[in-house]
Structures are given as structure tokens and as C-alpha cells.
Amino acid sequence: MNNKYILTLLLASAVFIPSEYAVYFFPAAIIYLLLLDKKLFGFLFKKSFYLLAVILLFIQPLFTGEKDFSLLGMNLSSSSFINGVLMIFRAVVVIPIVTSISRTSDKEKLRKVFGRIGVKNFDEIFEHSREIFPLLKENIKEFFHSTEKRKIFNPVELAAHFIAFLIKSTNAYPVNSKKENVL
Amino acid sequence: MEKDLRKNDIILTALFGALWGVIELSLGTVLHASKLPFRGTILTIVAVVLISVSRSFITYKGSVIAISSVAASLKLITIPGFNITPFIAIIVEGIIGELVFTVLSYNFISSLITGSLILIYTLIHSFVMQGVFFGFNIYNVYIDIINSIGKSINYKGEISYLIIPLIVFIYIFLGSLAGWFGWAAANRAKEILKENLV
């Protein structure tokens, strides 16, 4: 079976599996994902993941559930701790699956969806924006360089001047002019 | 058959879409590198300003969705790898903006409402993603922890009834502020353009 179908099946199972079966399912799913690509587990080294792990494995047993064991002089709840472990396991399975599905998605197909769902003149708009894209960065630099001299401190005024500057640039966008000279 | 857009509408849509894309990539990269908390919220506030400004200049139906589609597509083809959650977020922000401006038409109030709803969506989005990743039980965990902290500081009753509406209010306030900023900046920009044209 194609990896994509297996991953979709695993994702649905990870989301809906009852906790009594999760103990068997999650380790097997993790082994499969490790064999697929170890890099999918890069999120394990992120601070945001550690923060949630601390909340689920330490703060949750400390504040919620019936306290039935003690660690380093603190009363903790074993049921809350087990609940936290299951939640972490679920994340360790779900996050790599979502990452893998995202990575293998056909970007070009995804982009073309907008034209098909009825965004008017999408291809034409997108082509223009691709031409504008690199020039915009230069224009933004140019604007803020000139603003330093004019000293505008009011944020609304500054934003308004910026928008007017950009729109004025597009007014100078004749169809047959050289692309590098205009926004 | 649907009528094609005017050349000016196409160019302005491309401009605002590209601007949103540039901001997502440049500011997004800086925020990501800085490891600041609430990075998504900061980017959304900027997106609200852009949506509010753009609708003032591009009034055709579907313009906000078109801009968000361009921004999402630029992000899609520019950044190596692909993360589906910011992609979805940009599209949904565009849909919310389009719906409000279509139903209420573009004015001061609709700008405030658009900003508030988009910021509320950002809050919901992050919680939904946490629910998908960690399990929907995570909401009970948060509420239980908040209430336990309330009890430990001798708060009578459940403090989550106070904290959750407070967080929602802060998001609504920030969204309204961004909506107002976009509306005010767009109006002033029109004045500047008029002055320059005379």
C-alpha cells in the first residue's frame, strides 16, 4: 500500500483510538514512522514541545486528579501522569504524520486549487505577484530609507504613506513597460 | 459567464498578495528565529491590517480571498518544505475577511469586526491544532490547571470563568485595534494619493 494511504489511516487511528488500545498502537506507529524517516521527529528538540511535555507530565499530575504518589516531596496523581504520557505519545505519532503528509504534498497541485475553486483571474494575479515579489523588498527598503529623512513618527501616518507609496508605484505599471522599472 | 477583473484590480490584488507574502516570509522568519511567544498572533495582527487596507482599495467580491490565496501560494513555493497549518490559517483569515466585508460592506465597524473575528480564529486555530496533536482532552487539562491555581491563591469559585473570557477579550481588543489601524491607514493613504494627484 502507498505510504500516503498508510499515513492517513495511521492519522485517523491516532486521533480516534480508545486509550486501552493506544498502548499497543502508539509504539508500533512510532517504529513505522522511524523506519520511514527519522527526521520527522525533529520537533522533539523544540522548546515548545518541551513546554507542553512539562505541562502534561509534571504540572497536570501536580494540580489535577487524586494525589496517590509522592515524588521529591510533592504529591502527584498517577492517573493524570498516565493521561499525560498518552497525550505525549499521541503527539509523537500525529505530528510526524502531519509533517510527512505535508512534505509529500504536490505544491503545484495545491496552488492550482485556487484557480479551480473560483478565485477570479488567479493565474494572472499570481504571475503579477511573482513579478512584484522581489521588487517589493527593494521598494520597502527605499521607502523606509526616505522616511528616515522625513521623520514620520505617527504609526497610522507612516503606514498610510507606505501604502500610498506602493499604490503609486503600481499606477506606473503600463502593460508594455519593462518589468524591472516598475513594481 | 463570470466577468473578468479590471487590470487595476488585478495589479492591486497582486500587490497586496505579494506584500502579505513578503511580510509572512520576512517578519515570519525573524519572529521564528527570535523564538518570541505569540508569533502567530503577531503575524495575524499584521494580516488584519493588510486585509482591512486592501479591501478599501480593491472592492470586488472575492478580493480578500484572492489576496490570501496569493500570499499562501507565495509562502508555499518560496519556503522549502511545507507546513500545512500556516497555509490553512492564511486561507481561513482571507475567508473570514471576505465574508464580513461582503455581508456588512467595507466601513469602520466591519473593519473592527473582521479584526476581532480573525484574531479569535487564531486563538481557536492554535487550540484546535493542540487538540489534534495531543488529544481533545488537553482542554480539560488546561481548565483543571487554571482552576487549581485559582484555588491555591484562594479564589472563590472557578477562576477559568474569569481567565478564559479575559483571554478572548484581549484577542478581540487586539483584533479591533488592528482593524481600526488598517481602516484609518487606508483612508489616510487615499487622502495622500488624492493630494498627490491634484
How many domain units of chain A? Answer: 2
Terminal CA distance of chain A reads 49 Å
Measured distance between first and last alpha carbons of chain B: 39 Å
Structural class of chain B: mainly alpha
Principal-axes shape call of chain B? globular
Query: Which strand order do you get reading across the main beta sheet of chain A?
Result: 1-2
Counting copies of identical and different chains, the oligomeric state is heterodimer
Overall number of strands of chain A: 2
Roughly what is the average pLDDT of chain B, rounded to an integer? Answer: 89
Counting DSSP H or I runs of 4 or more residues, the number of helices of chain B is: 7
Strand content of chain B: under 5%
Instruction: Give helix % range of chain B.
Output: over 70%
Which residue ranges of chain B are poorly predicted, with pLDDT under 50 across at least 5 consecutive positions? none
Gyration radius of chain A, to the nearest Å? 26 Å
Provide a descriptive summary of the structure in words.
Chain A has 183 residues and is mostly helical. Chain A has 2 domains: 3-105, no CATH class; 109-181, no CATH class. Chain A has helices at 3-16, 19-36, 47-63, 78-103, 107-116, 122-150, 155-171, and strands at residues 69-71, 74-76. In chain A, strands 1-2 form a two-stranded antiparallel ribbon. In chain A, β1 and β2 (74-76) form a beta hairpin. The radius of gyration of chain A is 26 Å and the shape is flat. Chain A starts with a helix and ends in a 12-residue tail after the last helix. By secondary structure, chain B is mainly α. Chain B has one domain (7-197). In chain B, α2 runs parallel beside α4 (84-104), α2 (39-57) packs antiparallel against α5 (108-134) and α2 runs parallel beside α7. Chain B has helices at 7-34, 39-57, 63-78, 84-104, 108-134, 138-152, 160-197. The interface between A and B is large, with 61 and 58 residues.
Give a summary of the structure in a few sentences.
Chain A has 183 residues and is mainly alpha-helical. Chain A is 72% helix and 3% strand. Chain B is mainly alpha-helical.
